[in-house]
Design brief:
The chain is mostly helical. It contains four helices and no strands. The chain has a domain of 41 residues. The termini are far apart.
Length: 90
């Protein structure tokens, strides 16, 4: 391992005029906020649910009986919309 002398400040950084430094400080900026993300309400939100295997088998059986193949995700969304419409109209 080679040991070298500590570099001098003038060797490591170029000289920046004090006026430029003051201008940057006065410009200001926004504060960084940890954990806060910009929320886009147009993007779908991921939702994880737990469903018993027997109940999931019933859903899959209902999907299998359909004449047009429908993804499970679409079927669940349809069910949620139907339930929400009933709740809102009551």
């Amino acid at each position: 391992m080679t040991i070298t002398k500590k570099p001098r400040a003038s060797e490591t950084l170029p000289a920046i005029p004090e006026a430029n430094i003051q201008a940057l400080i006065e410009k200001g900026g926004s504060v960084a906020r940890k954990g806060e993300e910009k929320k886009n309400l147009d993007k779908p939100q991921l939702l994880q649910i737990r469903i018993d295997r027997a109940f999931l088998n019933r859903i899959d059986a209902a999907l299998h009986r359909r004449k047009v193949k429908t993804p499970r995700h679409t079927w669940i969304l349809e069910a949620l919309y139907e339930k929400l419409e009933r709740e809102e109209s009551a």
